[in-house]
Design goal:
Elements (H helix, E strand, L loop, with lengths): L30 H21 L13 H27 L2 H23 L16 H23 L2
Length: 157
C-alpha cells in the first residue's frame, strides 16, 4: 500500500477458483480401466460358476451375521456419501447431490432394518417389529434407491 491507496499493480491473476473443476465422476474411463473392469467381471463370473454347485448346501444359522453385515453396509455407505458430498461441494452438480443423499439414506435406513430383523437382537426384532417389518423396510430401501438412480440418469450423471 502506498500513500495514494492500495497497490493494485500486483492484482491476482489466478482464476483457478473460477475455473471448472475436474472430478473423477465426470471423466470417462481409460482403456486400462475398462480392461481392469472386464477382468473383475470375468473373475466374479468364474467365482459364480465355481460356487454354483453349492446352491442347495445350507450353511448353519448365525444370528450375528445380519448385525455384522448391516454394520459394514452402514459404514461403507456413510463413507461413500461423505466422499460424494465432498465432490458436490466442489462441482455443485445436482446429480452428485442426489447420489450422495441416496447413499446417506441407505446408511441411515440400515439401522432400523437391522434392529427390526428377527432374531438379530431380539426373538421378534426390536422397535415393535412384526414378522414382515424388515422385509418392508428393505422394499422401501430398494424403492428409494431406484428413484435415486432414475434421478441420476435423468440429470445426465
Amino acid at each position: 500500500m502506498n500513500e495514494k491507496g492500495p497497490d493494485l499493480s500486483r492484482e491476482s491473476t489466478s482464476t483457478a477458483f473460477y475455473e471448472p473443476q475436474i472430478l473423477l465422476a465426470f471423466m470417462p474411463p481409460s482403456q486400462r480401466q475398462r480392461r481392469i473392469a472386464r477382468a473383475i467381471v470375468l473373475v466374479l463370473f468364474i467365482a459364480f460358476v465355481v460356487t454354483a454347485p453349492l446352491l442347495y448346501f445350507q450353511l448353519p444359522r448365525v444370528n450375528a451375521f445380519i448385525p455384522a453385515f448391516e454394520t459394514a453396509v452402514f459404514v461403507c455407505n456413510l463413507i461413500t456419501a461423505t466422499l460424494i458430498f465432498a465432490g458436490y461441494a466442489i462441482s455443485r452438480s445436482r446429480s452428485l447431490l442426489v447420489l450422495a443423499t441416496g447413499y446417506l439414506f441407505v446408511a441411515l435406513i440400515v439401522v432400523p432394518h437391522a434392529l427390526a430383523f428377527p432374531e438379530a437382537f431380539a426373538p421378534s426384532g426390536l422397535l415393535g417389529a412384526g414378522a414382515q417389518s424388515a422385509a418392508w423396510l428393505y422394499v422401501v430401501w430398494c424403492w428409494i434407491c431406484s428413484i435415486r438412480d432414475w434421478l441420476c440418469v435423468a440429470e445426465g450423471f
